[in-house]
Amino acid sequence: MIKTFAGFSLDRPLIMGIVNATPDSFSDGGEAFSFEDAVTRGLQMMQDGADIIDVGGESTRPGAAPVSIEEEVRRTVPVIKRLSDAGACVSIDTRHTLVMEQALAAGAEIINDVTALTGDVRSLDVAASVDAPVILMHMQGEPGTMQANPVYEDAPKEVLGYLTARVQACEAAGIDRARLALDPGIGFGKTVAHNVQILKHLDLYQRLGLPLLLGVSRKSFIGKIANEDDAQKRFPGSIAAALFGVQHGGNILRVHDVRETKQALDVWATIESAD
Asked: From the candidates 219, 224, 259, 262, which is the catalytic residue?
């Protein structure tokens, strides 16, 4: 098992704070849309204990429409530069190589791609040409239609098979395995049952020996289980899913609520490590 990611030791769970510089993300769309709001949110997350700040400029919520490359760059690159200059470890959440390149030039250190480097014909080559760590996520379909009718015979195993193939493709392209992390893509082309099955069988993904990122924060499957339509009121369920995930192999938590997540992890870790 690889014990580090992006220079961080994985002897404890890492917290990745979400900065969506978009008007339409599912939970916080518009809250960090302006440059100043996005920077303020990122700086606060650093202060609250985030290890990584994940900056995205294109919503990938179910049914989301794509934005132009130019607009995605406009939304993200100035924010990345300001946060990087402030000392943040920044990841760029994008599926487009031109955005990756400009984000990395502005100071981003990690590529976080919901298409696992399949969304652009140049993605593998670009990732191979730099030293940045890469997060490979599974998604069935694409954001506009992914929740229309997702079907699996065995969701945990099919996601594992896909991620295994993407790791092999990355290695064949010259990307060092030690630079990779995996994300099973909770909520991306999956029903509530699929999400729950994947979380229940997270141990499967440890076979690849790579760090595992979990993005469960405020997701709709929590709302459906708890009968809560307001995404911003799903924090208790988010923490329940996150702590279960950490106990079963999750290494990085991608979250909206950094301070609260850190408190929960600190308490959990103290109890877990007690004699």
From this structure: 219
